[in-house]
Write a structure and sequence with these properties.
With 370 residues, this protein is α/β, with parallel strands linked by helices. It is built from 14 helices and 15 strands. The chain folds into two domains: 2-120 and 306-369, NAD(P)-binding Rossmann-like Domain (Rossmann fold), CATH 3.40.50; 131-304, NAD(P)-binding Rossmann-like Domain (Rossmann fold), CATH 3.40.50.
């Protein structure tokens, strides 16, 4: 198969979808890999490394899309890329369709085969291609939140862990999945008072067992959230419904009860966000203030630590990408239910139910396109 690796063009997105080590694996199996020049530089991988691994370097993103049968990316295509996708071309990347009707409509019109990292799902319900970036984002959420609690950047001027004689900050984490768990570990390690909420009592029992003493668990419901935000210095939204829009759990009226200079970090923003006032921001302009509360809503948080993120992501994605290249997308999806669940839009048809429901689009069972 001919594999294309374009340079990411989303604002401040420095990750790359395939490392030189990954190119070596494709080439060993007889595949051709085209990599756009400088695609790996943001992650610390020079063009020479790709050439030594057997990749063919191309000057432009247009050339990569034109030659490749399978495009492997990190982030969803943005508007300049829409028309580059050909009918029947496989695009393997994060899509997060439910947060963007424009992207969904564009992929329907282009009639490509859109296989989304975030909905590849194992039999136990885990999301193997989302987990590594959720781990990074959960840890970064606390790191960024701690930074923006500083007074010079608009925060309350509170040190997350406090000091002897001074109380630490209160951190509220909504969602006890991978993001929430990693965020709680980081916040607890820095010495904050941490409350983590979830709707799953079994998950809360597990978290209560593994977390240190400065982490408390609480059932997630509107009353508890409404009360907890009043005293929270940092709120982290860590809610995920696979492939679907995140529910709005913190409303505008709740925001008005928060302390001036408090910070909210919505990690769910790439799925529409779980904080009503959050809209996607970039690493270039990451924050805004509403009702005295500082919002950090960067949709590609792991892009700020591209070396770590690229290695973590490609460790997870490469085995799936190799399977797609070896077998072709259709045969690979017929043999692997994990990959089949990754199909979102195929030949102009929406085959992932949560995406169809998000925009009231016709839904076609995936079996009909295989």
């Amino acid at each position: 198969m001919i594999v294309g690796v374009p340079k990411e063009i989303k604002n401040n997105e420095n990750r790359v979808a395939v490392t030189p080590a990954g190119v070596t694996e494709f080439v060993k199996r007889g595949h051709t890999v085209y990599v756009q020049k400088s695609a790996g530089e943001g992650s610390g991988f020079a063009d020479e490394s790709y050439e030594k691994a057997g990749a063919i370097l191309l000057d432009s993103i247009e050339e990569v899309y034109a030659k490749a049968e399978m495009i492997v990316k990190v982030k969803e295509p943005i508007e300049p890329e829409y028309k580059l996708i050909r009918e029947g071309q496989l695009v393997f990347t994060y899509f997060h369709f439910a947060s963007s009707e424009a992207l969904t409509q564009a992929m329907i019109e282009q009639k490509g085969v859109c296989l989304a990292y975030e909905t590849v799902e194992k039999a136990d319900g885990s999301l193997p291609l989302l987990i590594p970036m959720s781990e990074v984002a959960g840890r970064m959420a606390v790191q960024e939140g701690a930074k923006y609690l500083e007074k010079p950047v608009g925060g309350r001027g509170i040190l997350l862990g406090g000091v002897p004689g001074v109380m630490p900050a209160n951190v509220l984490i909504i969602g006890g999945g991978v993001v929430g768990t990693q965020a709680a570990k980081m916040a607890a390690g820095l010495g904050a008072n941490v409350t983590i909420m979830d709707v799953n009592l079994s998950r809360l029992r597990y978290l209560a067992d593994i977390m240190p003493a400065n982490v408390r668990t609480m059932m997630s419901n509107e009353y508890n959230i409404r009360e907890a935000v009043k005293t929270a210095d940092l709120v982290i939204g860590a809610v995920l419904i696979p492939g679907a829009k995140a529910p709005k759990l913190i409303t505008r009226d709740m925001l008005k009860t928060m302390r001036p200079g408090a910070v909210v970090v919505d990690v769910a923003v790439d799925q529409g966000g779980c904080i009503e006032t959050c809209t996607p921001t970039t690493h270039e302009n990451p924050t805004f203030v509403i009702d005295g509360v500082l919002h950090y809503c960067v949709a590609n948080m792991p892009g700020a630590v591209p070396y770590t993120s690229t290695l973590a992501l490609t460790n997870a994605t490469l085995p799936y990408a190799l399977r797609l290249a070896d077998l072709g997308w259709r045969e690979a999806c017929l043999r692997s239910n994990e990959l089949k669940l990754g199909l979102n839009v195929v030949h102009g048809k929406v085959v992932y139910k949560a995406v169809a429901e998000a925009f009231n689009l016709p839904y076609v069972p995936v079996e009909e396109v295989l």
